[in-house]
TrEMBL record:
One of its GO terms (molecular function) is ATP hydrolysis activity. This is Putative ABC transport system ATP-binding protein. GO terms for cellular component: membrane protein complex. InterPro entries: AAA+_ATPase, ABC_transporter-like_ATP-bd, ABC_transporter-like_CS, MacB-like_ATP-bd, P-loop_NTPase. The keyword Metal-binding does not apply.
């Protein structure tokens, strides 16, 4: 199992108040799979994803990603894990405004262990002809393509996407979902995606419904739907 989480708990302390955000999460996702996490605002989706990606730490329980017990890594090893194994895509693209498209991607490829070829990645995400532009000269969908290119150039084992289409219109959202499916197929990258949009769950191999820090339902799609056929 590529991702295997057992009894993961996480609380946040603010003043004297302790909030239990994750209450014993159990989750499995196979290598090369696409997982979707659904759930209302505040249910713990981002917290869970941040722990899987090594941005945050769980309080207890086990989080194994490709054989690595993430919760047990010291700070240096956690940084290396995050840098070398994980790609992140967020709702807002977080591109550096003063750098061109290719420079934004190069920043990551320079610190990567075995980066993919820049032109191949630009081609794969469909922005090769825009590599000398600045982010302000791109549409939202194009900026998200750059952020996906930046995430995959380091050839991550796992791509974590937090509301990747949250800021995009309908047709652009669909094209970004198609792109994520293509990345999954072309590079075999395991993808875990948070969304509010239940229709998107159709493209996943596994769907996890989170409510108040617990997985309340889990389903398996034997035949995931191609993103271009998803409607909402
Ligand atoms: N660093 C933090 N310190 C204190 N509380 C936090 C922190 N991060 C998250 N929380 C709290 O944990 C709960 C879960 O937050 P989380 O962001 O994981 O939810 P979510 O399901 O991703 O929500 P959304 O869909 O709105 O992004 C919320 O009540 C939030 O206020």
């Amino acid at each position: 199992m590529f991702i295997h989480i057992l009894n993961l708990k996480k609380s946040y302390q603010s003043g004297v108040v302790t909030t239990e955000v994750l209450k014993g999460i159990e989750m499995k996702l196979e290598k090369g799979g696409i997982g979707v996490i659904l759930g209302p605002s505040g249910s713990g989706k981002s917290t869970l994803m941040n722990i899987i990606g090594g941005i945050d730490r769980g309080d207890s329980g086990s989080v194994v990603v490709d054989g690595i017990e993430v919760n047990q890594l010291d700070d240096n090893k956690l940084t290396t894990y995050r840098r070398e194994q994980i790609g992140f895509v967020f709702q807002f693209y977080n591109l550096v405004p003063s750098l061109t498209v290719s420079e934004n991607i190069e920043v990551v490829s320079h610190i990567s262990h075995s980066p993919l070829n820049m032109d191949e990645v630009l081609e794969a995400v469909g922005i090769k002809d825009k590599k000398h532009r600045f982010p302000r000269e791109l549409s939202g969908g194009e900026q998200q393509r750059v952020s996906i290119a930046r995430a995959i150039i380091k050839n991550p084992k796992l791509l974590l996407c937090d509301e990747p289409t949250g800021a995009l219109d309908y047709s652009t959202s669909r094209s970004i979902l198609q792109l994520l499916q293509q990345v999954n197929e072309k590079y075999g990258t395991t993808i875990l995606m948070i969304t509010h949009n239940t229709a998107i769950a159709a493209m996943a191999d596994r769907v996890f419904k989170l409510r108040s820090g617990e997985i309340v339902a889990e389903s398996v799609n034997q035949i995931p739907v191609p993103a271009e056929r998803i409607e909402w």
